[in-house]
Amino acid sequence: MNIGIVCYPTFGGSGAVATELGKALAEQGHRVHFISYNLPFKLNHFNENIIYHEVEWYEYPLFEYQPYESALTSKIVDVALYETLDLLHVHYAIPHASAAYMAKQILLSKKIKLPYITTLHGTDITLVGKDPSFEPVIRFSLNNSDAITSVSKTLKKETLNIFKIDNNIEVIHNFIDFEKIQQIRKEARCCISNKSKNEKILMHISNFRRVKRIDDVVKIFALVRKKIKSKLVLIGDGPEKPHIERLVRALKLQNDVIFTGRIVEPIEILSSADLFLLPSETESFGLAALEAMAVGVPVISTNAGGITEVNIHDKTGYVCNVGDIKNMAKLSIDLLSDEKKLMQFKQNALIQAKKFDVKNILPKYLTLYKKLIDNSKL
Ligand code: GMT
Questions:
Q1: Are 262 and 11 a contacting pair, CB within 8 Å?
Q2: What is the mean pLDDT of residues 63-91?
Q3: Which protein residue has the closest C-alpha to ligand 1 atom 14?
Q4: What average pLDDT does the segment 72-93 reach?
Q5: Which of 95, 103, 163, 233 has the CA that lies 20 to 30 A from 82?
Q6: Atom of ligand 1 nearest to the CA of 15
Q7: Residue 45 Cα, ligand 1 centroid: separation in angstroms?
């Protein structure tokens, strides 16, 4: 197959999933064309089946805001024509689904069929997409997608609640390459060289947006540290970072909190963690939590959105109400002080993560792709 993938290049779950999907398809011999305004951050290895097409910017003084959607549409049309795409798969609805719809219409006027799939990732529905400034466009371009997939059952439900979607939504969960991760994990070294024997490491990864509630991460850690010798490793960067740095200093935690900045491949560093914290306000899936579990790290999270499809309460970790810092801290302390339970949860986390192995998920995308390509030939 000859597949076009549109995604955001920036640090974030949707771009990561889109890129890992494209890489897995390319490894199976499919030709994958990434279309974005920058090289996706996970597209860091050469594969002759992967081609990157950059959306061109046209600078003009009249444009205070660049008309990205038009530029993206033109690039999709260009790639579809000259690379004879069989299918387009767009990740994150805004503005990718409407650009895909427009490109499809332009190609139809040239008697070329290009079916498109929209994969919903979360904030494109739960936060941004439902805003009146986007809602009619999102609803229209979803209803006209040849297929819609959602990364969790919860996100599907939310989408149906928010938008009047007549189209079917297929749930295809996010995935990890379990075997590859086990390989990295085996060779990983502890990220804290002077870690003492009983010291525990708590971790959080995100793009430091408000929705992640990183204040809660820090406050949970402050309570845990009173009872357990521990360090907090904060991986990532984003708008909340300066505020979080100030909070860490105000709580006098600076000697025990490590800000790593962005890390493209976080598996090695995750392997040093004893506990992963994800107290998000909303989270359609929680890919970072799945990555932690894939290296055997239990997760303390909220019960917001689709996290509960990944993190199983009292088995792979604990799930609590949004903002319930005290409970999250208490459960963290209980788990970290009970070695037997911690070992059991680590094991459970590995078993649960394996269910989301690429080997189980990729065939679902391939079946959908084949169905759409066959339909477009009718
Ligand atoms: O919030 C992020 O981490 C980024 C965002 C994105 O779209 O780039 O993530 C969303 O998609 C991820 C991949 O499907 C999911 O794992 C995240 O749960 C989801 N984030 C939210 O729903 C807040």
A1: yes
A2: 96
A3: 121
A4: 98
A5: 95
A6: 8
A7: 23
Task: Give dist(CA 177, CA 5) in Å, integer.
Answer: 19
Residues 6+ positions from 199 with CB-CB distance below 8 Å: 192, 229, 230, 231
User: Residue 10 contacts by C-beta under 8 Å, 6 or more apart in sequence?
Assistant: 38, 41, 207
Candidates 345, 291, 290, 292; CA nearest to 315 is: 345
User: Where does 178-354 sit in CATH, by number?
Assistant: 3.40.50.2000
Cα of 266 from ligand 1 centre, angstroms = 16
Ligand 1 centroid to 207 CA: how many Å?
Answer: 9
The CA distance from 137 to 311, in Å, is 33
Domain ranges in the chain are 2-175+358-376, 178-354
- Distance (angstroms) between ligand 1 centre and the Cα of 33 equals 22
Note if the pTM is more than 0.85.
Answer: yes
Grade residue 252 by pLDDT with cuts at 50, 70 and 90. very high
Average pLDDT over residues 236-256: 98
Our separate counts of H helices and E strands in the chain read 15, 13
Query: Superfamily assignment of 2-175+358-376 in CATH?
Result: Glycogen Phosphorylase B; (3.40.50.2000)
Tell how far the Cα of 260 is from the centroid of ligand 1, in angstroms: 20
User: Pocket residues for ligand 1 (CB within 6 Å)?
Assistant: 12-15, 17, 92, 121-123, 151, 174, 206-207, 211, 282-287
Q: Do domains 2-175+358-376 and 178-354 have the same CATH topology?
A: yes
Distance between Cα 374 and ligand 1 center (Å): 31
Chain-centroid distance of CA 196 in Å reads 33
- pLDDT (tens digit per residue) in 197-206: 889 999 999 9
* The 50-54 sheet, strands edge to edge: 50-54, 31-36, 2-6, 87-91, 116-120, 147-150, 169-171
- CA of 119, closest atom in ligand 1: 14
Which atom of ligand 1 is the closest one to the Cα of 285? Answer: 18
Give the pairing type, strands 317-320 and 299-302: parallel
Tell which atom from ligand 1 comes closest to the C-alpha of 281.
Answer: 23
